Amino acid sequence: MAEEQRKPKKRMTATKAAASIGPMVKEFITGTNRARAEGKRKLAYTFIVCHHEEILRAMDVLPVWTENFAGICGVKRAAERFLQKAESLGFSRSLCTYALCGLGFDQWREELGEMPPDAPWGGQARPDFMISSGQILCDPRTKWYQAAQQFMPDVPIYNIDLPHPLFDPKKDHREVWGYYHKYIVDQLRGLVSFVEEQTGKKMDYDRLRELVALSDRTWNLVHETYELRQAVPCPMGTGDAMNTMVPLCFMMATQEAYDFYVNLKQELEEKIARGEGEVEDEKYRLLWGGGLPAWYALNDFNYLNSKGASFPAETTYRMVVPIYEMDIPETDDPIEHIAWKWLGYWTHWYDKARNRPGSEPDVERLIEYIENYKIDGVVMHLAFSCRTWHVGLIWQLHQLAKIYRPIPVLMLGGNGKGDKVQRELPSLILESDIIDITSYSEMDTRNKIDAFIETLESVRQTKAA
After folding, report:
1. How many CA atoms, within 13 angstroms, populate the side-chain half-sphere of residue 183?
2. Count of domains observed in the chain
3. Mind listing the pLDDT tens digit for each residue in 86-140?
4. Contact (Cβ atoms closer than 8 angstroms) between residue 420 and residue 345
5. Phi, psi (rounded to 5 degrees) for 113
6. What CA–CA distance (Å, rounded) separates 356 from 364?
7. Cα angle at 212 between 143 and 207, to 5 degrees?
8. Which of 18, 33, 119, 322 has the most beta carbons within 10 angstroms of its beta carbon?
């Protein structure tokens, strides 16, 4: 591998908040290793977007975010040896490379009895137990920890099932909400019992209620902060958002997360007041319409910025709909509220989708961002090993093309003659992987971006004419 592939240039950020994330992530990774050495707190392997972080923190359990560690290995271009280790154990490279990286690392750590040499930021701490969840989203999340248990047979697993009503254009999801809510509440109460058994402590429901309220305030604040990016020029783009998502995904139910977004909101407001944008001369406003990024190639965002392209919005890691916009019942029970919040988020765009024949919720979310953020084009990333999330992205682009297809419009000029202009939404599909750098070609990617920029410029000039 070439030297420049092993040691990527540091991505330039547009905000101070995004620049502060690296040390923050390093601290909570090294912090789990300190906790492991001290033996005073229980550690739990777990995944993001599982709506159970408040339960863990209320019981003083420290989450070990296995997806995050795999992502760090990708950012540092240090994942390949762990992927190869997993392959040597019989796992296929076509599986989720997050899972492969984690499995390769865990087996190596258990084999050595210590961290593998030169483990990024000290390595991934050994857990006391593991919490998995597929969420009707990601099969590897259910099987990953089962596979890891081969190397750690003494570490128990709890699998939490978090379903939501599948979209049916002919039915109102509220008709079955009660059933799903009861089921999720039972799953969450089962998790509480499991953690109580593992820790030897009983749940403090007053403490849980406080943490759930803190998460709600943070959740609403994230929405209000990100909505500021509708400003022209955009003060912060998706490149930075791939950093500023960290407190939302890995630090909820903490005061640190809330304070982070207070500071980010203030920074964006100040940039807007000064007229400062993510790029100096904003020409194109793009939507990151789907897909995890190639963590080893975040500099591609800087390359797009250098072409005058800004990213005011993204669907990836933007997992908030304000509580006050959710059509959910009120309850004083924190477990019941967590369940309603889960259902409220995943069904938020169902009504809009039912009102547009042939649409579906993910497409409605894209349309909402396109209209609200004055989007000129859509970029998506198809990661070959992340099929469960990335499947359907091309179909979504096809649906958007039906809505934003070129439409001849008669514009009367001063000479009374009609000129035809087009309304269209160009799209770019990038292809590589989340952490497997062998799938990536910088030259091919930059060539695709250059061609996309030419298309955007052609559309821009046509509209200007």
Report:
1. 14
2. 1
3. 999 999 999 999 999 999 999 999 999 999 999 999 999 999 999 998 776 787 8
4. no
5. 80, 10
6. 9
7. 105
8. 18
